[in-house]
Amino acid sequence: QVQLVESGGGLVQAGGSLRLSCTASGSAFSIGAMGWYRQASGKQRELVAVISSGGTTNYADSVKGRFTISRDNAKNTVSLQMNSLKSEDTAAYYCTANLWQHGWNIGDYWGQGTQVTVSS
Fold it and tell me: Strand order in 77-82's β-sheet?
């Protein structure tokens, strides 16, 4: 059983910073792409940032230049550094990872979500 566990959410003032982390745990798996999505109240879940196993990154236009995604393959961890936060960044943030096990792609796994609230 593979699990993704997020940490690092909280309340911050506009203009501040937060760092989210997500660690995959379990046995006998490898990780492809990892990413972060967010879902604000009453809105659809949207992609924030994604990073390939080789380190190629892609960002939503709304966070480019403010957020940075990174990963530590040795620790099965993906992080999201969020700077210059705005009230519109308030949302539940979810990490996701595309997993492989015994040579098979077993699909996308999701964390439980962590709340980020930016006060103006």
Answer: 3-7, 18-25, 77-82, 67-72
Which among 48, 52, 53, 78 has a CA at the least distance from the CA of 64?
Answer: 48
Q: Which residues pair with 9 in a beta bridge?
A: none
State the amino acid at position 78 in one-letter form. Answer: V
Contact 27, 114 (CB under 8 A): no
Residue 69 buriedness (CB in 10 A; 0-12 / 13-18 / 19+): buried
**Beta bridge pairs of residue 21:** 7, 79
Residue 9 one-letter amino acid:
G
pLDDT in tens, 48-60: 999 999 999 999 9
- As a whole number of angstroms, the distance between CA 28 and CA 102 comes to 7
- Strand-pairing partners, residue 25, are 3
Confidence of residue 112 (pLDDT cuts 50, 70, 90): very high
What residue type is assigned to position 44 of the chain?
Q
3-class SS at 77?
strand
